[in-house]
């Protein structure tokens, strides 16, 4: 039996803490069914030409974890896919099969330049 990951468990927030980014907007919360894909949207209408889209997640009681980044092309790394809209005004992080272990806070932020470190 598949369990539903409720809003309390699987939330995608843009908090006012260290990972927040005034240039991006995300839904306050989402829910998904276990083993199903989930699509996490992020709007960034003021993105500049050299800003990369970075996604992090924070599992409860852990520090932020780098997930994936992209400039203008779609990126897949096995655990997630980043879809970048043609005009780069929005992007979507796709988690192919979520489990209870994926419950946490997901952050979309913009950073200039191609940094070697996440």
Automatic annotation (TrEMBL):
Coiled coil: none
Main location: membrane
Subcellular location: Cell membrane
Gene Ontology process terms (BP): immune system process; response to bacterium
SUPFAM superfamilies: Immunoglobulin
Keyword line: Cell membrane, Disulfide bond, Glycoprotein, Immunity, Membrane, Signal
Any Pfam family hit: V-set
Membrane spanning stretches: none
Gene Ontology CC entries for this record: plasma membrane
InterPro entries: Ig-like_dom, Ig-like_dom_sf, Ig-like_fold, Ig_V-set, TCR_complex_component
Domain Ig-like, first and last residues per copy: 15-118
Domain of life: Eukaryota
Protein's recorded name: Ig-like domain-containing protein
């Amino acid at each position: 039996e598949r369990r539903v990951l409720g809003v309390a468990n699987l939330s995608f927030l843009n908090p006012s803490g260290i990972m927040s980014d005034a240039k991006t907007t995300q839904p306050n919360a989402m829910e998904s069914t276990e083993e199903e894909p989930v699509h996490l949207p992020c709007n960034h209408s003021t993105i500049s030409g050299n800003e990369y889209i970075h996604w992090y997640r924070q599992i409860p009681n852990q520090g932020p974890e780098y997930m994936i980044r992209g400039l203008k092309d779609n990126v897949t790394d096995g655990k997630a896919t980043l879809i970048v809209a043609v005009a780069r005004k929005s992007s979507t992080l796709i988690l192919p099969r979520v489990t209870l272990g994926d419950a946490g806070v997901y952050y979309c932020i913009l950073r200039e330049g191609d940094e070697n470190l996440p």
